[in-house]
Amino acid sequence: MNSNQVQLNIPLSFKQVVDIVRQLSPSEKQQLSEVLWKEQSIEDIVIPEEDKQIVRERIKKYESSPESYLTWSEIESKMADRK
Which of 25, 31, 47, 53 is buried most deeply by CB count within 10 Å? Predict the structure, then answer.
């Protein structure tokens, strides 16, 4: 086992795991974050129905008056003008 590996064979509560993660260096936390993202599958992601409804309402609002919204290039242009 190299110095970057940890082997745990004891049951831990979620709180205990969080406490351990808090002790990691920023670099180790970043590495852990990358591992967690890779481990998560698209099926694991749950979008609450309330959030879905908000998106549906925004799409409807846009479709009823698309001319009142900026294009992405217009947004980029406005942001560049601020600099």
Answer: 31
